[in-house]
Specification:
Length: 192
């Protein structure tokens, strides 16, 4: 039996996830993945955007990834995971949600779990750094305003995927239960 497509506007959580995935796509390409790009391939306006962000926020994660020290290999590995695992899901997930396809639930569960897990590590790093009223650029310390800005940037990228993971786990569980029930019913019909 085919799954009838419901308009995205009638599915508020799917609409939230859809918009989140579409917003996350350009942000990932322009900001998060810059540490992975050869510098000569990054257009100067995009480099300027990252520079402005780093000067304003003093984001230790992006600075560490850009500087390439071995102590920041973990964040570069997260960006690599974002490039090969999450970036394709922004497109596939948005497409599947738009089409109201239950087949996207499991991939979105995997994406959301991965995204929430990596973002928790980033938030923990931001929270663990010392506070200074006016840290020097590149210093591993944050002002109160910088910490608030970073948390305002990172927390939504934890909460939406965390909610998505819980929601998609429930949806996948529902599909499994319906499939098992249909399988059991089919076996009963064969016995008769």
């Amino acid at each position: 039996m085919a799954h009838p497509q419901r308009p995205l506007s009638t599915r508020p959580l799917d609409l939230l996830y859809f918009v989140f995935l579409l917003i996350h796509f350009p942000a990932t390409l322009a900001i998060d993945l810059q540490p992975l790009y050869p510098p000569h391939l990054v257009p100067s306006p995009i480099r300027a955007l990252l520079s402005f962000y780093l000067n304003t926020s003093n984001d230790p994660l992006l600075q560490g990834a850009m500087n390439g020290g071995p102590e920041w290999a973990w964040i570069r590995s997260f960006f690599f995971l974002e490039a090969v695992g999450q970036l394709p899901m922004f497109v596939l997930g948005a497409r599947g949600l738009y089409r109201d396809s239950p087949r996207i639930y499991l991939p979105l569960l995997i994406y959301a779990t991965s995204s929430a897990t990596t973002t928790i590590a980033c938030i923990a790093t931001v929270l663990s750094l010392p506070s200074h009223a006016s840290p020097a650029p590149g210093e591993l310390a944050l002002s109160t305003q910088q910490r608030a800005m970073l948390l305002a940037s990172y927390v939504p990228f934890l909460l939406v995927p965390l909610g998505m993971a819980i929601d998609m786990a429930g949806r996948v569980g529902g599909l499994v239960c319906r499939g098992l029930a249909a399988n059991a019913k089919g076996k009963e019909g064969k016995k008769e």
